[in-house]
Amino acid sequence: MADLVDAVARKRDRQAFSALFDHFAPRLIAHLMRLGADPATAEELTQEAMTTLWHKASLFDRSKSSVATWLYRVARNRRIDVLRRDRSDCIDINEPMLMPSAEPDMDDAISLAHREETVRAALAHLPEEQLSLVRLAFFEGMSHSEIAGQLHLPLGTVKSRIRLAFTRLRRTLEASGIRQEA
User: Fold this and answer.
1) pLDDT in tens, 80-120
2) Is a pLDDT exceeding 50 seen at residue 182?
3) Structure pTM?
4) SS3 call for 66
5) What sequence ranges are listed for the domain RNA polymerase sigma-70 region (predicted)?
6) What is the DSSP string of 69-129?
7) How is the chain split into domains, by residue range?
8) Overall fold of domain 106-175
9) Which of 79, 104, 110, 126 could form an SS bridge with 131, CB 3.0 to 4.6 Å?
10) Cβ atoms of residues 8 and 57 within 8 Å
11) How confident is the model at residue 164 (pLDDT cuts 50, 70, 90)?
Protein backbone atom coordinates (compact mmCIF):
# COMPACT_ATOMS: atom_id res chain seq x y z
CA MET A 1 0.00 0.00 0.00
CA ALA A 2 2.84 2.39 0.81
CA ASP A 3 4.17 1.94 -2.72
CA LEU A 4 0.81 3.06 -4.09
CA VAL A 5 0.94 6.21 -1.95
CA ASP A 6 4.45 6.85 -3.25
CA ALA A 7 3.14 6.54 -6.83
CA VAL A 8 0.40 9.05 -6.05
CA ALA A 9 2.92 11.43 -4.46
CA ARG A 10 5.53 11.20 -7.21
CA LYS A 11 3.50 10.75 -10.39
CA ARG A 12 -0.09 11.57 -9.46
CA ASP A 13 -0.80 8.00 -10.52
CA ARG A 14 -4.59 7.72 -10.90
CA GLN A 15 -4.54 3.90 -11.00
CA ALA A 16 -2.63 3.78 -7.71
CA PHE A 17 -5.09 6.23 -6.17
CA SER A 18 -8.02 4.20 -7.49
CA ALA A 19 -6.59 1.04 -5.92
CA LEU A 20 -6.13 2.85 -2.60
CA PHE A 21 -9.65 4.28 -2.80
CA ASP A 22 -11.21 0.89 -3.58
CA HIS A 23 -9.36 -0.71 -0.68
CA PHE A 24 -9.78 1.96 2.01
CA ALA A 25 -13.04 3.80 1.27
CA PRO A 26 -15.40 1.05 2.49
CA ARG A 27 -13.25 0.48 5.56
CA LEU A 28 -13.13 4.19 6.42
CA ILE A 29 -16.91 4.53 6.01
CA ALA A 30 -17.50 1.57 8.34
CA HIS A 31 -14.98 2.94 10.86
CA LEU A 32 -16.57 6.40 10.88
CA MET A 33 -20.03 4.89 11.31
CA ARG A 34 -18.74 2.88 14.30
CA LEU A 35 -17.59 6.21 15.71
CA GLY A 36 -21.14 7.54 15.45
CA ALA A 37 -21.27 9.23 12.05
CA ASP A 38 -24.41 8.76 9.99
CA PRO A 39 -23.89 7.08 6.56
CA ALA A 40 -23.94 10.34 4.58
CA THR A 41 -21.45 12.04 6.89
CA ALA A 42 -19.22 8.96 6.93
CA GLU A 43 -19.18 8.95 3.14
CA GLU A 44 -18.43 12.67 2.98
CA LEU A 45 -15.61 12.38 5.53
CA THR A 46 -14.17 9.43 3.62
CA GLN A 47 -14.18 11.49 0.42
CA GLU A 48 -12.36 14.26 2.26
CA ALA A 49 -9.81 11.83 3.71
CA MET A 50 -9.14 10.36 0.28
CA THR A 51 -8.85 13.87 -1.21
CA THR A 52 -6.29 14.63 1.48
CA LEU A 53 -4.42 11.51 0.41
CA TRP A 54 -4.42 12.74 -3.19
CA HIS A 55 -3.17 16.22 -2.29
CA LYS A 56 -0.82 15.35 0.57
CA ALA A 57 0.51 11.92 -0.34
CA SER A 58 4.04 13.35 -0.22
CA LEU A 59 3.60 13.93 3.53
CA PHE A 60 3.08 10.23 4.21
CA ASP A 61 6.09 8.70 6.00
CA ARG A 62 6.12 4.91 5.95
CA SER A 63 8.67 4.86 8.78
CA LYS A 64 6.15 6.50 11.12
CA SER A 65 2.97 4.59 10.31
CA SER A 66 1.21 2.31 7.89
CA VAL A 67 -1.03 3.73 5.17
CA ALA A 68 -4.07 2.45 7.05
CA THR A 69 -3.03 4.17 10.29
CA TRP A 70 -2.36 7.43 8.44
CA LEU A 71 -5.70 7.41 6.59
CA TYR A 72 -7.72 6.43 9.66
CA ARG A 73 -6.08 9.30 11.55
CA VAL A 74 -6.91 11.75 8.75
CA ALA A 75 -10.55 10.56 8.72
CA ARG A 76 -10.81 10.71 12.51
CA ASN A 77 -9.36 14.22 12.59
CA ARG A 78 -11.82 15.36 9.91
CA ARG A 79 -14.65 13.89 12.02
CA ILE A 80 -13.45 15.85 15.04
CA ASP A 81 -13.21 19.04 12.93
CA VAL A 82 -16.80 18.57 11.75
CA LEU A 83 -18.00 17.95 15.30
CA ARG A 84 -16.26 21.10 16.49
CA ARG A 85 -17.68 23.16 13.63
CA ASP A 86 -21.22 21.83 13.89
CA ARG A 87 -21.43 21.72 17.66
CA SER A 88 -19.20 24.53 18.76
CA ASP A 89 -21.85 25.75 21.20
CA CYS A 90 -23.36 22.40 22.08
CA ILE A 91 -21.18 19.40 22.82
CA ASP A 92 -22.94 16.06 23.12
CA ILE A 93 -21.34 14.38 26.11
CA ASN A 94 -22.49 11.01 24.74
CA GLU A 95 -20.52 11.39 21.48
CA PRO A 96 -18.45 8.20 21.14
CA MET A 97 -15.40 10.15 19.94
CA LEU A 98 -15.38 12.20 23.14
CA MET A 99 -15.88 9.35 25.58
CA PRO A 100 -12.82 8.19 27.51
CA SER A 101 -11.92 4.55 27.22
CA ALA A 102 -13.55 2.53 29.96
CA GLU A 103 -11.12 1.23 32.50
CA PRO A 104 -11.26 -2.56 32.44
CA ASP A 105 -11.80 -4.23 35.76
CA MET A 106 -8.79 -6.00 37.24
CA ASP A 107 -9.91 -9.51 36.21
CA ASP A 108 -10.45 -8.40 32.60
CA ALA A 109 -7.10 -6.59 32.53
CA ILE A 110 -5.27 -9.65 33.83
CA SER A 111 -7.13 -11.91 31.40
CA LEU A 112 -6.32 -9.60 28.49
CA ALA A 113 -2.65 -9.38 29.49
CA HIS A 114 -2.47 -13.18 29.68
CA ARG A 115 -4.15 -13.53 26.29
CA GLU A 116 -1.75 -11.01 24.71
CA GLU A 117 1.25 -12.78 26.21
CA THR A 118 -0.03 -16.14 24.93
CA VAL A 119 -0.61 -14.76 21.42
CA ARG A 120 2.87 -13.19 21.35
CA ALA A 121 4.39 -16.50 22.44
CA ALA A 122 2.42 -18.38 19.77
CA LEU A 123 3.59 -15.91 17.12
CA ALA A 124 7.19 -16.32 18.28
CA HIS A 125 6.94 -20.08 17.62
CA LEU A 126 5.99 -19.63 13.97
CA PRO A 127 8.66 -20.34 11.39
CA GLU A 128 10.28 -17.06 10.29
CA GLU A 129 8.84 -17.24 6.76
CA GLN A 130 5.29 -17.58 8.13
CA LEU A 131 5.81 -14.91 10.79
CA SER A 132 7.08 -12.39 8.25
CA LEU A 133 4.03 -13.02 6.02
CA VAL A 134 1.64 -12.59 8.96
CA ARG A 135 3.40 -9.34 9.91
CA LEU A 136 3.15 -7.96 6.37
CA ALA A 137 -0.49 -8.96 5.94
CA PHE A 138 -1.92 -8.07 9.32
CA PHE A 139 0.39 -5.53 10.88
CA GLU A 140 1.49 -3.68 7.74
CA GLY A 141 -1.88 -3.99 5.98
CA MET A 142 -0.47 -5.38 2.74
CA SER A 143 -2.63 -7.48 0.44
CA HIS A 144 -1.55 -11.00 -0.46
CA SER A 145 -0.71 -9.90 -4.00
CA GLU A 146 1.42 -7.00 -2.70
CA ILE A 147 3.32 -9.42 -0.47
CA ALA A 148 3.82 -11.82 -3.38
CA GLY A 149 5.23 -8.99 -5.49
CA GLN A 150 7.50 -7.67 -2.76
CA LEU A 151 8.89 -11.08 -1.81
CA HIS A 152 8.92 -12.44 -5.38
CA LEU A 153 6.76 -15.41 -4.39
CA PRO A 154 3.78 -16.92 -6.22
CA LEU A 155 0.47 -15.63 -4.87
CA GLY A 156 -0.67 -19.17 -4.05
CA THR A 157 2.46 -19.71 -1.94
CA VAL A 158 1.78 -16.55 0.06
CA LYS A 159 -1.83 -17.56 0.66
CA SER A 160 -0.99 -21.11 1.69
CA ARG A 161 1.81 -20.02 4.04
CA ILE A 162 -0.50 -17.52 5.74
CA ARG A 163 -3.21 -20.17 6.02
CA LEU A 164 -0.66 -22.61 7.51
CA ALA A 165 0.49 -19.93 9.96
CA PHE A 166 -3.06 -19.37 11.15
CA THR A 167 -3.71 -23.09 11.46
CA ARG A 168 -0.58 -23.39 13.58
CA LEU A 169 -1.55 -20.34 15.66
CA ARG A 170 -5.07 -21.68 16.21
CA ARG A 171 -3.75 -25.04 17.42
CA THR A 172 -1.22 -23.40 19.74
CA LEU A 173 -3.79 -21.01 21.19
CA GLU A 174 -6.43 -23.72 21.64
CA ALA A 175 -3.84 -25.87 23.43
CA SER A 176 -3.25 -22.86 25.72
CA GLY A 177 -6.96 -22.63 26.48
CA ILE A 178 -7.74 -19.69 24.20
CA ARG A 179 -10.74 -20.35 22.01
CA GLN A 180 -11.63 -18.57 18.79
CA GLU A 181 -14.32 -15.95 19.40
CA ALA A 182 -17.29 -15.89 17.04
Assistant:
1) 887 777 665 555 656 666 666 566 567 766 777 788 888 88
2) no
3) 0.48
4) coil
5) 20-87
6) HHHHHHHHHHHHHHHHHHTSS---TT-GGGSPPPPPPHHHHHHHHHHHHHHHHHHHTS-HH
7) 2-98, 106-175
8) Arc Repressor Mutant, subunit A (1.10.10)
9) 126
10) yes
11) very high
